[in-house]
Amino acid sequence: MSLSDSLVKPSPLPGFGPALGAALLWLGLLVLVPLAALVWRASGLGLGGIIAIATQPRIAAALRLSFGLAFLAAVLNVVLGGIVAWVLTRYEFPGRRLLDAAVDLPFALPTAVAGIALTAIYAPNGWIGAPLAALGVKIAFTPIGIFIALVFIGLPFMVRSVEPVLAEFDPEIEEASATLGASRLKTVLQVVLPPLAPAFITGFALALARGVGEYGSVVFISGNIPFFSEIAPLLIVVKLEEFDEAGATAVATIMLTISFAMLLLINLVQGWTRKRMGHV
């Protein structure tokens, strides 16, 4: 058997060569070429120049805030998204379809609309912000507000990643575990969660990637205070408005590099998990 034969799996659509060529062509034009152009523009600064820009206090603070809050929001969405997916999959109740549709609202809403809505609710005079402000807690125009916005836009990615896999999970396996004397906690940890691990990792990666690059829903509620609530995507816009194209390109390249490294690591973990669970 030749190498090309071993790579081809039975498919109703013939033509491995043309299909692969078309896939690589579109991937190159839509993804690789723009990213390569960005890296090429940044290469003019040299590695030392990029490092110098990355270590500027304002830029370093914005990068830490963007990546740190995106990671924390994705972690919280693993828990919240898993619970929501479980409820939507395992239970029938009045309003279930309405709740299911509401999960997709962050997909449908323009990001600016989401940002304005969140700011109006969590501002010091908002429905939720006012009672909290009376207690001395400020949400809008702080990193806490950014965190809430990132949880809001990242939740659907987790729910929609876990829900299909959970729907295919046979409840009889859980019943068998209980019959054998396993507690509910042990059943969840050793029977339910392991097969769902690849789906959880996928949802986490998608939520993290969306959170790192989010702009519209965050820029309003963040307050954009340097060294406190200024996100890296906004800093790129600021650099462009100042006609500092080199600085904007450097910040974008730094974000691209960190994001690629994080997603590569997540994909490696996901692949290892799939092999360990016997899915590939």
Tell me what you see in this structure.
With 280 residues, this protein is an all-alpha fold. The protein has a domain of 165 residues: MetI-like (MetI-like fold, Orthogonal Bundle). Helix content is 79%, strand content 0%. It contains 14 helices and no strands. α11 packs antiparallel against α14. The two termini are 21 Å apart.
Low-confidence stretches: none
- Could you give a short account of the major beta sheet? none
Number of helices: 14
Q: What's the CATH H-level superfamily name of the domain at 67-231? A: MetI-like
* Residues in helices, as a percent range: over 70%
User: What is the level-2 CATH architecture name of the domain at 67-231?
Assistant: Orthogonal Bundle
Overall mean confidence score, pLDDT: 84
Task: Give the key terms.
single chain, MetI-like fold, 280 residues
